[in-house]
Amino acid sequence: MKAMILAAGKGERMRPLTDHTPKPLLQVAGKALIEHHIVRLARAGFDELVINVSHLGQQIMDHCGGGGRWGVQIHYSPEEEPLETAGGIQRALPLLGRQPFLVVNGDIWIDYDFGQLLGYRPAPEEHAHLVMVRNPSQHPRGDFKLDGEGWVRELAPGETGLTYAGVGVYTPAFFSGMAPGKLALRPLLDDAIRQCRLTGEYHPGGWEDVGTPERLRALDEAVSSAR
What we know:
Blueprint: E1 3-7, E2 27-28, E3 31-32, H1 33-44, E4 48-53, H2 57-64, E5 73-78, H3 84-96, E6 101-105, E7 108-110, E8 128-133, E9 145-146, E10 152-153, E11 163-170, H4 186-194, E12 198-202, E13 207-209, H5 213-226
Parallel strand pairs: 1-4, 1-6, 4-5, 8-12
Antiparallel strand pairs: 2-3, 6-11, 7-13, 8-11, 9-10
């Protein structure tokens, strides 16, 4: 199974840190965010990775290179302008192949064992499988809920659910109906929920959406002290 790390965003909320450094190269405990992912993926048995790049993308390519120092092979999917999540994945499909693949947001930190998803094979009616986490303070309602059989469902008005962690397994079929170009992931997820094609699981461990400089500093202190 291949894995894709999403690393093309501009990181507007992280400015001025991202004016000269792409967000995935910001440091946590002395290591770039994207490197934390690469190390975990390599340890889990993923040996072929795809990284999409746009904003200051050459820095990411220079830093990660071909992946040899981690024992993986890295391919790059360049975007002239960031295509958002679904658009970026759709652009990279020729590199990802015809089998299900893992996707990880490059601007999160998570202690999830990626090995649990290595070789994951969705059921015929299933087009994607999401990893969900408890809601952070900046997103108290969450995104979706999980029913007792592991299917992802919409939130009813006033209902609280779980937050999509930015980690999931997707099939090429999930993107089959979209035209090339810029597109967020949420509309496709909502459509998959309506068609009962989206499953999920809950991860109770550590996770952080590194969306502001304050969150980056807090995460850096937490991970550094834990070591």
